[in-house]
């Protein structure tokens, strides 16, 4: 059996680790509330924007709007992967990486040439270590992304799509469903999908024309879709890290309980041995 001194040293080490994981859990919880509020506030605007495009877009207008162009075959595609800059968030980044790799394999299997963009240290490190070529890699995206970040990410892609040099663009990101559900999903940002027109369609008198309105809304929709993906990924990262750190804290507490029992048994055995040595020495002196 290990000496009580060694066990006690290990107990202090585990207890220090538990303090760190508990602190990280509390920090992630605080950041998660802020990120979750941003996601919740952004969703109504995104939904209304999609609804307006769906109501305004017609087959005739689709022919005059380059961002609505549906290519006969995807020959050139862009995949934008959003990961975190830091780890300690469970399988969060692994799920995103697997999703992106699966999408790339699917597109290449269909004969498309894939251009790969990666945001976040974890994704960059993974694909760089495996020798995967990345057309663009950035790790300067903060925990609080701004619309300007999304605009910079898709401005060039949208321009090349309008010019016919890109046929499709996808964003692989984490979807924030709840505190414990943050699945990796794929969102197609180009070409813009008009979506289904549900319910009775109102009659609009438009000024300016629907074509002019769409020409303003469609680029905004592309940027907003990317911005929404960034917000959801940020909130999902904090949620995943909170869950991972809570599990680590609980495991550390369980391990401490086992070490305490082992320490008590070792200490009791040492005391018993000491008593036996004292009794043995007293008997030797009497004889």
Would you mind describing this structure in some detail?
The structure is a single chain. The chain has 287 residues and is an alpha/beta fold. It has 2 domains: 4-21 and 244-286, Helix Hairpins, CATH 1.10.287; 35-241, ATP synthase, F1 complex, gamma subunit (Pyruvate Kinase, Chain: A, domain 1). 62% of the residues lie in helices and 11% in strands. The chain has 6 helices and 5 strands, in the order ααβαβαβαββα. A 5-stranded mixed β-sheet has the order 3-2-1-4-5, sandwiched between helices. Helix 4 (121-129) links the parallel strand 2 (113-119) and strand 3 (136-138). Helix 1 (4-56) packs antiparallel against helix 6. The longest helix has 77 residues, at 210-286. It is elongated, with a radius of gyration of 29 Å. It starts with a helix and ends with a helix. The mean pLDDT is 88.
- SS summary, helix count: 6
If you compute it from the alpha carbons, what radius of gyration comes out, rounded to the nearest whole angstrom?
A: 29 Å
The average pLDDT is 88
The structural domain count equals: 2
Give the full name of the CATH homologous superfamily of the largest domain.
ATP synthase, F1 complex, gamma subunit
**How much helical structure, as a percent, in the residues?**
55-70%
Major sheet details: 5 strands, mixed
Termini separation: 33 Å
Q: Report strand order across the widest sheet.
A: 3-2-1-4-5
Fraction in beta strands: 5-15%
H-E order = HHEHEHEHEEH
**Poorly predicted segments:** none
Number of strands: 5
**What's the CATH class of the largest domain, please?**
Alpha Beta
Global structural class: alpha/beta
CATH T-level fold name of the largest domain: Pyruvate Kinase, Chain: A, domain 1
> What is the CATH architecture assignment of the largest domain?
3-Layer(aba) Sandwich
